[in-house]
Amino acid sequence: MQNKPVDMTRLGIARCEIAPEPRVTPDGEVRRDRDGNPQWITGVVVRQLEGRRMDAINVIVSGAQPTGIKEGAEVRLTNLWANEWEVDGRRGTSWRADAITPVPPASGSGSGSASSAPAGGARGKGGEQ
Predict the structure, then answer these.
(1) Strands 99-102 and 74-78, how do they pair?
(2) Distance between CA atoms of 75 and 5, rounded to whole angstroms?
């Protein structure tokens, strides 16, 4: 199938939803890449730049375990690729990156929570499309 590079500057903000953990086979063995490096999988939520739409993806990296990644924190995905696959009539997309690193908090921004909540703290029914 196809491998496609992803331009994160056009995609939006990425946050860790599930901290990095070893990617394992159904037998519990740690999966390795072609060079024998262990693979790590991290649950990431990507919020599009405009609107309220978010997508949850599982991003795989090879090598040393990503460090400093905390659930809920913004992360940077370096060299992200979307890989389309099809096996036995099933199909999907897997996501791979060269690295997942924490984004340092902006200095002097206070608590940072004011921009994440809608004005007045109210939410509409059904969400926007």
Answers:
(1) antiparallel
(2) 18
| Domains of the chain by start residue, with CATH | 3-100 (2.40.50.140)
Query: 9-38: per-residue pLDDT in tens?
Result: 888 899 999 999 999 999 999 999 999 999
Query: pTM to 2 decimals?
Result: 0.77
pLDDT tens-digit readout, 62-94: 999 999 999 999 999 999 999 999 999 999 999
Residues 6+ positions from 128 with CB-CB distance below 8 Å: 51, 52
- Give the span between the Cα atoms of 96 and 80, in whole angstroms: 6
